[in-house]
Amino acid sequence: MATSNDLLIKQRSVIEFLAAEGCSAANIHARMKTVYSEMCISDCAVRKWYRFHKIRRHYTSLPHSSFDGFEITMFSFSSYRCSLIPV
Question: Is-contact 46 15, C-beta < 8 A?
């Protein structure tokens, strides 16, 4: 049987995949609820990870020349922002 941590990782992967396909956060949560039922993460958590993957996808798809002289730091979950720090 999968541990709760394994289940969380799987659900985050589902969110990443479906967000990349263009599904909305509400649609992702509804689809996950049918599969995982009571083990599904909350709607709020789905929206948090959805925003994280959308932001990460945006910043990693930018041309590298956009970041000359800057380093991308880790994303902040409290503000859902990416910080650029001069190198």
Answer: yes
Q: pTM (2 decimals)?
A: 0.64
Number of domains in the chain: 1
Distance CA 58, CA 54 (A): 6
User: Of 83, 12, 5, whose CA–CA distance to 47 is shortest?
Assistant: 12
Q: What is the pLDDT of residues 17-27, one digit of tens each?
A: 999 899 999 99
pLDDT tens per residue, range 33-61: 999 999 999 999 999 999 888 877 665 65
- CA dist 48 → 36, 53, 75, 81 (Å): 18, 9, 12, 12
The domain in which residue 53 lies consists of 4-62
